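ok new one. same drill as before - structure tokens go in, u give me an amino acid for every spot. 186 of them this time. try not to just spam alanines like last time pls lmao
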């Protein structure tokens, strides 16, 4: 019982924090059964729900529908080995996703090396969908941001480069400026 109250108290604190901060909570689920997480993520206050195309090929329409019904923004992610063409139907369908996340490392853990060859996917997406939100995740920091931003990525996931920095705010500014500059040029 004590454990339940402990958990419930933490859950309430997180909900309270989210409502005060009004932060955009971008949730990327590297799971095989994303349908099971729509309800819990919505209850926890997620703003965006990104699932993997590799696991949802047969039921992505239903998944996107449920995500939207719960008031979240649907996004689709793809692993480095997955061809970019696999996400096109999800962007072009009747009930499309609103973001594509191009993984620039194998999903699993932080601190991996950025894969520049994934930028071909980003360029192809940006050319085809000029106003789509294109996210990149893995190995992003001051030394890799320019190549990602100039390829067309406008949403950046960065872990090690920010949390490992002496001045995290400065790193965030560098990343943001690179994306802003690239967006203004295009
Ligand atoms: O979770 C990840 C991979 O599954 C991400 O790549 C990670 O969160 C970002 O970390 P880093 O900036 O250290 O690459």
């Amino acid at each position: 019982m004590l454990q339940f109250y402990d958990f419930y108290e933490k859950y309430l604190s997180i909900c309270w924090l989210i409502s005060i901060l009004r932060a955009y909570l971008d949730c990327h689920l590297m799971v095989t059964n994303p349908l099971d997480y729509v309800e819990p993520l919505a209850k926890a206050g997620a703003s965006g729900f990104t699932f993997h195309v590799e696991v949802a090929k047969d039921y992505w329409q239903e998944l996107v529908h449920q995500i939207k019904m719960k008031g979240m923004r649907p996004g689709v992610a793809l692993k480095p080995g997955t061809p970019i063409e696999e996400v096109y139907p999800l962007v072009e369908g009747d009930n499309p996703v609103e973001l594509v996340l191009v993984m620039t490392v194998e999903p699993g853990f932080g601190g991996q090396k950025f894969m520049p060859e994934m930028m071909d996917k980003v360029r192809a997406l940006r050319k085809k969908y000029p106003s789509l939100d294109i996210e990149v995740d893995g190995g992003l920091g001051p030394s890799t941001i320019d190549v990602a931003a100039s390829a067309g990525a406008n949403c950046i996931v960065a872990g090690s480069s920010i949390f490992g920095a002496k001045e995290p705010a400065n790193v965030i500014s560098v990343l943001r400026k690179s994306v802003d500059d690239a967006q203004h040029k295009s």
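The beta strands are 26-28, 48-52, 73-78, 99-103, 133-137, 155-157. and btw The CA atoms of residues 104 and 115 lie 5 Å apart.
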